[in-house]
From TrEMBL:
The lineage of its organism: Bacteria, Bacillati, Actinomycetota, Actinomycetes, Kitasatosporales. Belongs to the UPF0303 family. It comes from the Bacteria. HAMAP family: UPF0303 (MF_00761). This is UPF0303 protein H114_10361. Signal peptide: none annotated.
Length: 163
């Protein structure tokens, strides 16, 4: 007897991803906000026993970092590559990759950027401050890219609903 085929997770459309970015905007983003958001991500990841590393940067400074059981130094390398995409494009790393896929190509084939330095894979989301713009990034690595992206979005939605 063969196992039933599992349907792959439906990837959000470019429009849905852009709507997330418009919605998930901070009134301000302080050191305390970075700590609280990072701590929330750790809590969510621990509940799921997710083997992730979590990073929050603002204006070139690392404000938060945590590595949970099962994560590895490779996750830190992925974090840096995904964060650089956010810093360069001002958009979520998953959205940047989705925009290339929507054009029938890939980031790696068409961006002309070194894939050892940049990765348009899910998990890094811009920290956008109202009236200012993108000031940093919150990044998760350790799960499949769509799950990394969704974990960050879930944390941002929860955090901003309390703001």
């Amino acid at each position: 007897m063969t196992a039933p085929k599992q349907s792959p997770e439906l990837a959000p459309s470019v429009e849905e991803l852009e709507a997330q970015e418009r919605r998930l905007v901070f009134p301000r983003f302080t050191y305390d906000d970075a700590w609280a958001l990072g701590s929330l991500l750790v809590e969510l990841a621990r509940e799921r026993q997710a083997p992730v590393a979590i990073d929050i940067h603002r204006a070139g400074q690392q404000l938060f970092h945590a590595a949970l059981p099962g994560s590895s130094p490779d996750n830190d390398a992925w974090i840096a590559r995904k964060r650089r995409v956010v810093e360069r494009y001002g958009a979520a790393s998953y959205l940047v990759g989705a925009r290339f896929r929507a054009k029938g190509t890939t980031f790696e084939e068409s961006s002309r950027l070194d894939p050892d330095v940049y990765a348009a894979h899910g998990g890094s989301f811009p920290v956008t401050v109202e009236g200012v713009g993108v000031v940093g990034a919150v990044t998760v690595s350790g799960l499949p890219q769509l799950q990394d992206h969704r974990l960050v979005v879930e944390a941002l939605e929860h955090f901003l609903s309390r703001a």
